[in-house]
C-alpha cells in the first residue's frame, strides 16, 4: 500500500479498504433527496421550450403573437431576441488540429438542424400556461432533405448542414505512421478486417434535465440551480461562452443529481434562455424537461462506424492495429463531441496488449441528429470492444485459442513501466493473472458441459471474454478544502460532484484514514461554485484520484498547521510535536509532545482556535485549509469479464446466464461502492449490446423517442454478477487508486458481444453488430448459410 497509508498498521473501522455503507443512502431511500425539480422558489415563473418538428430546414417564421395572448403568459422569446441581447454561443472545447468550429446559438435563427432544435421559449405564471403558450407559437420551416448517419453525410450529394463545413466534415483526424502501418500489414503472416457499428444510445438518466435561474439586479449576478457534473466548469462555460460576463457574476448550485453519465456535464441552450428570462422579469424562472424532450434534446452517446484491422506475425504476436472510422457529431458540436472517436479511440485500443503500431483515422461528420457527446466511458469501452472483437476473429481465422492469443500478447509485469504506441505510460498491472482468475471464477473448463445442456434444450450457448484497460481522464486541477465547523463537524469541499457515485463516503474514509477525524462528523460540500477555487468536475473515472489526492495533500497541510498550533498550547517546540493516530477514537488524532503523555486532540485544538479572538504569527486563526491539486495523472484500470449467454434460435431472444468480472482498480477505498459501480457499468454495457437502438427515419424523425420504442435493461434482464478484485495499486497517486466508474461498460461490451458471436458461430453467423436485438439475431440466423 502506498506510503500515505502505510503508517496505519491496524485498519480503521471506517478507514480505507472498509465496505462502509453510503452516507447518502438513508436520505435517498426515505425520499428525502432534493433534486432541482423539487425546488420551488418564491415568485417562480415557468418556462417551456418550443422545438423544431423538422430535422432540417430554413427557419422562415417564428411568430409569438398568439402565445402572448394566452392567459398567464408573460413573455415569448425567439433567437432574434437573444441575439439582440448580445449573448454568446455554445462551443466545442476539444483542441484538435484541423477542427472546424461549429458554434451553437441557444435558439436557432437561420436553420433548424435536428428534430428538437429549440427555436423559442415561453415564460408564464404556471407550467400549464407556459405549455399552452408554447403550443400557440407558430413555426414555419421550409423543409430540406436530412441526413442521419455519418457515412451518408460524407457522400458527395448529401444534404449540407453548414455553408462553412463543406462535405459536412468538421475534422479528418489521423494518428500513426501510415507507411509503417501499411508495411506491417503487407508483411504480416495473418490479417483480419471487421466492420463494426458502435450504436448510438439515448442516455436515459433517471432525472430529466431541470434548472431554475435567478438574477439579482442590484449586483448584476446570475444564479443557476441545475443538475450537473461539476459546478466550477459549468460556471465558466455559462459566464464566458454564453453570458459574456466575468465568472464572478455567475453562481451555479447543484443538489442531488439523478444520473448523468456524461450528458449533464456541459451547458445547454435552455440554461441561457432561463437566465435571460430571469433578468427580464426579475423573478426566478424554472424549466423541467419531459421525457420526450429529453430523448430529443439531451446529448446522445456513441455512434461510430468503424473498420477495424489487426495484423499478426506467424507466432500470433500483434504487429499493428488500424481503425478507420466515421464519427457522428450530430447537428452541433458538443463541448467534447470529437473526443471519443479520436484521441480516446487511440488511447484505449491498445488495451493491455503489446501492439507496437496503432493507426487511427476518423472523419467527424455533422448530421441532422441530436448532438453526440460523452457517455459512460466516452470512447474507452469502444476502443476495448474493437480490439477484443478483432482478437476473436483473428483466433478463429488462425485456428488458435483466443485466450492463448491474448496471453501471448499481454504486456507482462516485468515490462512495466510500459510506453504504449499512443504515448500512454502504464506504471503497473498483471493482466494475465487477472484473466486467469476470471477464468477460474467462471468455471471456464466446465463450459462445454453447460453448452451441451443448452443444446439439449434447443438453445445456443455462447461464451465471451472481454479484457479491457482504460486510460482515465486527462489531468486537471482539483480542490480539496478541509474546514473545521463550529458544531464540531468537519466539511470537505471538493470540485468533483456526485451524481450517483456516492462520493461522500469514500472521501470521508480517506480523510478519516489520513487525519483521524471521526468518520460520522465528516460532511461533504460539492455543489456550490462560490465555495470553490478549482474543480475538474466528475468524469473520466478520475474523481477519487483527483479529490482523494487533493484531500491527502490538504490533510498534510492541516497537520502542519496543527503541529504549529499545538506547540503554542502545549508550550513546546514545534519540532517536538508528534501527530499520532488514535484508531476510532471520538476525539480523533492527537498532537503529542514526544516522549511525554502531554497531548491535545485534533478536534479540541480546532475548537480552541475557533475561540481565540485574534490570530497571530504564533497562532493560526483555524486549522482550515483550502488546497488546489495541480493535477492527478492518468491511471489505467483494467480487468477481464466473462459472459455466458443462451440464445433461442426460434425467437432470437438472448438471455445472459452467467457473468464474472475480475478487476484491477488499484487500492479499493470502499469495496462495496466499487462493486456497485461495476454492476451499474456492466448493466449499461448490456443495454447497449443487446437492447438500445436509437432509430431515425430518412427525414430525421426520432423513431425511438420514448420508452415505448427504446428498451433499457431491467433487473430481470441480468444475472447475479460474480465480482473479483486483483489489485495492483498505481504509483501515480498517493492512494494507489485507479478509477472504476466506467470500467463496467469497457468489459461488458466485448464480453457480451463475443458470447453472442460464439453462440451464433455454430449456425454460421460470424459477426453481428450491436444492438443484438431478438429481431436482428433472428434475421441473421435465417440468412445464415445452411
What does this structure look like?
With 786 residues, the chain is an alpha+beta fold. The chain folds into 3 domains: 187 residues, Aldehyde Oxidoreductase, domain 4 (2-Layer Sandwich), CATH 3.30.365.10; 185 residues, Aldehyde oxidase/xanthine dehydrogenase, a/b hammerhead (Aldehyde Oxidoreductase, domain 3, Alpha-Beta Complex); 319 residues, Aldehyde oxidase/xanthine dehydrogenase, molybdopterin binding domain (Aldehyde Oxidoreductase, domain 4), CATH 3.30.365.10. It contains 21 helices and 28 strands. The strands form 7 sheets. The chain has a 7-stranded mixed beta sheet, with helices on both faces. A 5-stranded mixed beta sheet has the order 7-15-14-13-8, with helices on both faces. Strands 18-26-27-28 form a 4-stranded mixed beta sheet, with helices on both faces. Strand 27, helix 19 and strand 28 form a beta-alpha-beta unit. The protein is globular and about 90 Å long. InterPro entries: Ald_Oxase/Xan_DH_a/b, Ald_Oxase/Xan_DH_a/b_sf, Ald_Oxase/xanthine_DH-like, AldOxase/xan_DH_MoCoBD1, AldOxase/xan_DH_MoCoBD2, AldOxase/xan_DH_Mopterin-bd_sf. Keywords: Molybdenum, Oxidoreductase.
Note the topology.
Elements: H1 3-6, H2 25-29, E1 45-51, E2 57-63, H3 65-68, E3 73-78, H4 79-84, E4 111-112, E5 118-124, H5 127-136, E6 138-143, H6 150-153, E7 169-175, H7 178-187, E8 190-198, E9 210-216, E10 221-226, H8 231-243, E11 250-253, H9 269-281, E12 285-288, H10 291-297, E13 304-312, E14 318-330, H11 340-349, E15 358-366, H12 380-398, H13 402-409, E16 418-419, E17 425-426, H14 431-441, H15 447-456, E18 460-469, E19 478-484, E20 490-494, H16 504-515, E21 522-525, H17 543-570, E22 577-580, E23 590-593, E24 599-601, H18 602-611, E25 625-629, E26 638-647, E27 654-664, H19 671-690, E28 722-725, H20 743-761, H21 774-783
Parallel strand pairs: 1-12, 10-11, 14-15, 20-21, 27-28
Antiparallel strand pairs: 1-5, 2-4, 2-6, 3-5, 7-15, 8-13, 9-10, 9-12, 13-14, 16-17, 18-26, 19-20, 19-25, 22-23, 23-24, 26-27
Helix pairs in contact: 11-12, 12-20, 16-17, 19-20
Organism: Teichococcus globiformis
Protein name: Xanthine dehydrogenase family protein molybdopterin-binding subunit
Domain Aldehyde oxidase/xanthine dehydrogenase a/b hammerhead: 30-145
Amino acid at each position: 500500500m502506498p506510503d500515505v497509508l502505510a503508517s496505519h498498521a491496524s485498519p480503521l473501522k471506517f478507514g480505507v479498504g472498509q465496505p462502509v455503507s453510503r452516507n447518502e443512502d438513508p436520505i435517498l431511500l426515505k425520499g428525502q433527496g432534493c433534486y432541482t425539480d423539487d425546488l420551488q422558489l418564491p415568485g417562480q415563473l415557468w418556462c417551456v421550450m418550443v422545438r423544431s418538428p423538422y430535422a432540417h430546414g430554413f427557419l422562415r417564421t417564428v411568430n409569438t403573437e398568439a402565445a402572448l395572448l394566452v392567459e398567464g403568459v408573460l413573455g415569448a422569446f425567439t433567437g432574434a431576441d437573444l441575439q439582440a441581447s448580445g449573448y454568446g454561443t455554445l462551443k466545442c472545447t476539444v483542441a484538435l488540429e484541423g477542427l472546424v468550429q461549429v458554434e451553437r446559438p441557444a435558439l436557432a435563427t437561420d436553420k433548424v438542424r435536428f428534430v428538437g432544435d429549440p427555436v423559442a421559449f415561453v415564460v408564464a405564471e404556471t407550467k400549464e400556461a407556459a405549455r399552452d403558450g408554447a403550443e400557440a407559437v407558430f413555426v414555419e420551416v421550409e423543409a430540406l432533405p436530412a441526413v442521419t448517419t455519418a457515412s451518408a453525410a460524407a457522400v458527395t450529394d448529401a444534404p449540407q448542414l453548414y455553408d462553412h463545413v463543406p462535405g459536412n466534415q468538421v475534422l479528418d483526424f489521423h494518428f500513426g505512421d501510415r507507411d509503417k502501418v501499411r508495411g506491417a500489414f503487407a508483411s504480416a503472416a495473418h490479417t483480419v478486417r471487421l466492420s463494426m457499428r458502435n450504436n448510438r444510445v439515448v442516455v436515459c438518466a433517471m432525472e430529466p434535465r431541470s434548472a431554475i435561474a435567478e438574477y439579482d439586479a442590484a449586483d448584476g449576478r446570475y444564479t443557476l440551480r441545475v443538475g450537473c457534473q461539476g459546478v466550477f466548469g459549468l460556471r465558466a462555460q455559462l459566464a464566458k461562452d454564453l453570458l459574456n460576463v466575468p465568472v464572478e457574476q455567475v453562481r451555479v448550485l447543484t443538489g442531488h443529481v439523478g444520473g448523468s453519465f456524461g450528458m449533464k456535464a456541459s451547458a445547454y441552450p435552455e440554461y441561457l434562455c432561463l437566465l435571460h428570462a430571469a433578468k427580464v422579469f426579475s423573478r426566478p424562472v424554472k424549466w423541467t424537461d419531459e421525457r420526450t424532450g429529453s430523448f430529443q434534446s439531451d446529448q446522445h452517446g456513441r455512434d461510430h462506424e468503424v473498420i477495424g484491422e489487426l495484423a499478426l506475425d506467424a507466432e500470433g504476436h500483434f504487429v499493428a492495429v488500424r481503425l478507420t472510422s466515421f464519427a457522428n457529431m450530430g447537428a452541433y458540436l458538443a463541448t467534447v463531441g470529437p473526443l471519443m472517436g479520436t484521441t480516446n479511440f487511440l488511447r484505449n485500443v491498445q488495451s493491455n496488449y503489446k501492439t507496437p503500431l496503432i493507426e487511427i483515422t476518423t472523419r467527424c461528420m455533422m448530421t441532422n441528429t441530436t448532438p453526440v457527446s460523452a457517455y459512460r466511458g466516452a470512447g474507452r469501452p469502444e476502443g476495448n470492444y474493437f480490439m477484443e472483437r478483432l482478437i476473436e476473429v483473428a483466433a478463429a481465422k488462425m485456428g488458435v485459442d483466443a485466450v492463448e492469443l491474448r496471453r501471448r500478447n499481454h504486456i507482462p509485469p516485468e515490462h512495466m513501466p510500459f510506453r504504449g504506441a499512443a504515448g500512454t505510460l502504464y506504471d503497473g498491472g498483471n493482466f494475465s493473472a487477472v484473466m486467469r482468475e476470471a477464468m477460474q471464477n467462471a468455471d471456464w473448463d466446465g463450459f462445454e458441459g453447460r453448452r451441451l445442456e443448452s443444446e439439449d434444450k434447443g438453445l445456443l450457448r455462447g461464451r465471451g471474454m472481454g479484457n479491457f484497460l482504460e486510460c482515465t481522464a486527462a489531468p486537471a486541477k482539483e480542490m480539496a478544502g478541509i474546514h473545521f465547523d463550529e458544531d464540531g463537524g468537519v466539511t470537505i469541499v471538493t470540485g468533483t460532484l456526485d451524481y450517483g457515485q456516492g462520493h461522500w463516503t469514500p472521501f470521508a474514509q480517506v480523510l478519516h484514514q489520513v487525519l483521524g477525524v471521526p468518520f460520522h462528523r465528516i460532511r461533504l460540500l460539492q455543489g456550490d461554485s462560490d465555495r470553490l477555487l478549482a474543480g475538474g468536475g466528475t468524469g473520466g473515472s478520475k474523481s477519487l484520484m483527483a479529490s482523494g489526492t487533493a484531500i491527502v495533500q490538504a490533510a498534510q497541510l492541516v497537520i502542519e498547521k496543527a503541529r504549529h498550533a499545538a506547540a503554542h498550547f502545549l508550550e513546546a517546540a514545534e519540532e517536538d510535536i508528534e501527530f499520532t493516530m488514535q484508531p476510532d477514537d471520538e476525539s480523533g488524532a492527537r498532537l503529542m509532545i514526544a516522549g511525554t503523555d502531554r497531548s491535545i486532540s485534533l478536534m479540541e485544538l480546532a475548537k480552541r482556535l475557533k475561540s481565540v479572538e485574534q490570530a497571530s504569527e504564533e497562532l493560526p486563526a483555524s486549522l482550515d485549509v483550502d488546497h488546489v491539486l495541480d493535477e492527478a495523472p492518468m491511471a489505467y484500470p483494467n480487468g477481464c469479464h466473462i459472459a455466458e449467454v443462451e440464445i433461442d434460435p426460434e425467437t432470437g431472444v438472448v438471455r445472459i446466464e452467467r457473468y464474472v468480472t475480475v478487476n484491477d482498480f488499484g487500492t479499493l477505498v470502499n469495496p462495496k461502492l466499487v462493486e456497485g459501480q461495476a454492476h451499474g457499468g456492466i448493466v449499461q454495457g448490456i443495454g447497449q449490446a443487446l437492447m438500445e437502438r436509437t432509430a431515425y427515419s430518412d427525414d430525421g424523425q426520432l423513431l425511438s423517442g420514448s420508452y415505448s420504442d427504446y428498451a433499457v435493461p431491467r433487473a430481470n434482464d441480468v444475472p447475479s454478477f460474480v465480482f473479483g478484485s486483483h489489485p495492483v495499486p498505481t504509483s501515480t497517486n498517493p492512494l494507489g487508486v485507479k478509477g472504476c466508474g466506467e470500467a463496467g461498460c469497457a468489459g461488458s461490451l466485448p464480453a457480451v458481444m463475443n458470447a453472442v458471436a460464439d453462440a451464433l458461430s455454430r449456425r454460421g453467423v460470424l459477426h453481428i453488430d450491436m444492438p443484438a436485438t431478438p429481431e436482428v439475431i433472428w434475421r441473421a440466423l435465417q440468412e445464415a448459410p445452411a
